[in-house]
Amino acid sequence: MSEEIKPVVEQQTADVEPKEQETVVNFGEKTLAELADLFQLLKESEDRMKRSKEAEAIKSAFYKRLSKEKAEAGEDASVEEPDENTPDTESTIPLQSGPVSPFAAIEAGFKALYMDYKKERAQYNREQDALREENLQKKQAIIEELKVLIEEPGDMKEAFPKFRDIQNRWRETGPVPQQNFRDVNDTYQLYVTKFYDLVDINRELRDLDFKKNLEAKTAFCELAEKLAGDDNVVEAFKELQKLHEQWKDLGPVAKEYRDAIWERFRAATSVINKRYQSHFEGLKEQQAENLKAKQALCEQVEAIANKEITSSTEWNTLSKEIEQIQAKWREIGFATRKENQKVYERFRAACDKFFERKRASFSEFKDSMNENLAKKMAIIEEAESLKDSTDWKATGERLIELQKQWKEIGAVPRKKSEQIWKRFRAACDAFFTARDNRPAGQGSFSANLAAKKALIEEIKAYESADAAADTAKAKEFAEKWNAIGFVPMKEKEAITAAYREAMAAKFPDFGGRGPRRERGNARGAERRPLSEKDKLKEQFTQLQQEIQTYENNIGFFGLSKGAEKLKAQMQERIDAAKAKLEELKAQIRAKEAQENQE
CA 68 to CA 66: how far, in whole Å? Predict the structure, then answer.
């Protein structure tokens, strides 16, 4: 059986450069400056001539980034990416009459680096091609020597050392052009076999050579068998190719061992080749799964990017969701070489669309907050113009109205929010503190309390006349009551209850708030008095309104010692009023249940 070795992937490993390792750097995320720096580092590296694919990837990423940034800057996005046919003169900045684009110098600097590298690479390739041609000439000359040695062997004790010298020089000679490798190697092996098989050499030397060859090939078999169990399938396959090339350079073994040693080596080779093929089939399946996973993430981001979003909270929530999706993306391995860049660009485009929309939305929101700031500044200016007013009732009502408007206005820039709120509150506090601390007299809380007490005594002293007179008088009392201003907070509930009690005693149909709608009886002249349930409902409604007023005003007290006290009192009244509401609610339900039973 022939010992010619035919691996699954036959190649001249010594005649070609090692495959460049695929970079894991995502050049698409780099800036123009970072890409230029990366190219500079590559150009200065010792193995730069073996990294031409990486150089082309950096160049491609640079011009994509350049085109994008020129478009974003409002310039012509077209770029002229240099290639193998680009003349060296294009690496300079072109003369132009108008202003020079800021991108021109960046592009010219990078192009100069690339063109310099291209020239060096071209020179390197020419030197390698020349060296391979030189090696081809040397190997062809060695073959001629071997041919002459076979045709005119002479004394074999002298021919055999010459043969060994020929073998050594053959192995020491470097790679030849790839297209000549098979032909020149097969010719050499043919004459090596002829030397062993056709020439009657010294038996002792021949057996010794066969023995050495057998030992070497046995060692190769052991190495191949060890590689067959290596976890790194790709690296094992590469090492196997080296073993094959070295096997070819060895001479034959004794005929009785040739088939066995070759079968052993071939069996180990078959295991490695099958594992290598299976590895890439599995890798292909995994890459297909990775592609599906990445496409699913693209669809998620695209759905988010096209979603109708109405609030900053939702923008922030969805931003975090996209960041989580991006983290998942980074955990997924590569897709197929053909699809990986496409799916990445799709994913990047969806992310960019979302964040562009977010930036635009927040820009609009910022404009809205500035408008709100202007509105609140107008309220502050009005409040500050009123803080020294002594028109206690009208100004107090206006400031409360301004407080309501303040609450209705939307958000303002965060760095201004606390500042303008303190300023507005200070103006309100200044007025209300002055109002509450003014000397007792006409218009003061104490004076108002006294006036209301006097009015209650006047109501109690009233003697009922006819229905029309009672109605008119009740209205008069109600108007006087409403015209009197605020009383001290701690007295408000008691004085209000006393007023209602007096009005209810003298004018049961009036209810303390105005005449009730008349309901005709059989005669159409009399008015039906309020039922107990109606009175309870009336109290319930009025108490609800008071609680709403309390809660609206409690947020506008200052932080002074006196204001804290008033705030605490107000909260106590709110809590008491809410408890009273529950009592009234229970009483109303009891009345309704009683009516249903009747």
Answer: 5
